[in-house]
Amino acid sequence: MPLIAQNIQIRPLSKNDEPFLREMLYHAIFVPEGAQPPPRDVIRNPELSRYVNDWGQPGDDGYVAVIRDKPVGAVWIRLLTGNDKGYGYVDDETPELSIAILPEYRGQGIGNALITYLFTEIYERHPAVCLSVSEENPACRLYRRLGFEEIQNDGTSVKMIRKLI
Ligand SMILES: CC(C)(COP(=O)(O)OP(=O)(O)OC[C@H]1O[C@@H](n2cnc3c(N)ncnc32)[C@H](O)[C@@H]1OP(=O)(O)O)[C@@H](O)C(=O)NCCC(=O)NCCS
Question: Atom 19, ligand 1: which residue's CA is nearest?
Answer without folding.
Answer: 107
